[in-house]
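agent> Task received from the user: take the single chain below, predict its 3D structure, and emit structure tokens. No templates, no multimer pairing.
agent> Plan: (1) validate residues, (2) run structure prediction, (3) serialize to tokens, (4) report one or two observations.
agent> Step 1 OK, no nonstandard residues flagged.
tool_call: predict_structure(input=
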Amino acid sequence: MTRFKADLGLLSVTVFWGTTFIASKLLLAEISLATYMFYRLSLAALFMVMIAFKYRREFSRQVMIHGLILGVLLYTSYFFQMWGIQQTSASNAGFITGLSVVLVPVFGFLFFKEKTSLQVWSSALMAVAGLLLLSGANPFKWNHGDLKVLICAIIFAFHIIFTGKYSRINNVYLLTSVQLVVIAFFSFLVFLPQMNALPIPSTKNLLILLYLALFGTVFTFLMQTSMQRFTTVARTAVIFSMEPVFAALFAYLVAGETLSFQGWIGGLFIVLGMINAEFPYHKFKSVNLH
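)
tool_result: status=success, residues=290
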């Protein structure tokens, strides 16, 4: 598996994550957040366990611990994001969450001595500038909600880093299964008070939930865990900055939502940042001009 193919696989993750925003928005207009999270994550965990069942003999204490760590990190990041977004604007929340693009290489160096090339650093900064323009956030006015979303970005950065480490030493199917079971369990605890009146989704909502479970959750996390083995965590973070670009594209295609001129420029910066991260400058350096 080449790094470029791995990066393409991670880019496909952002495509499907991009579709989940508008699908989730349509769904949350009819059901509660707790119900949504319970159905989506429970279905995803069930499907993932079925897929991974044939690898059950490779299940070990290490897989369980590493999957538990990833699951706790992921759910905690979701928790702080949802908590914070209630006290700040969606634009600020989107931008601050995207700061994980630069936090990943910073934390990778500080805690794990992982070096990041100047090419990837410049790409990360371009992506952050793009996220700022795309979201229309005001980075100079922070409130308590913004700080909670920042905690989300910090935790998500560690989730990317640890996924890169654990995916190299574990069966990715089992690792993804444990992770999804963990976040499904937490979603069940939140949903528990509503269990007495279990809402039955309509056929339309059930189809949307199945899509979100299979393609927005199972496929994306399995692909992330599989592909991060073959690329760096910093490049992964830059590629993941494409998520809001695809979210804006699908919001336009499905719901007719439009971007401002500033938003389009922001999206262009993010795309250029990803292209810069992938561009093979080394090939041009090795060209003999004589």
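agent> Step 4: summary for the user.
The longest helix spans residues 3-28.
agent> Done.
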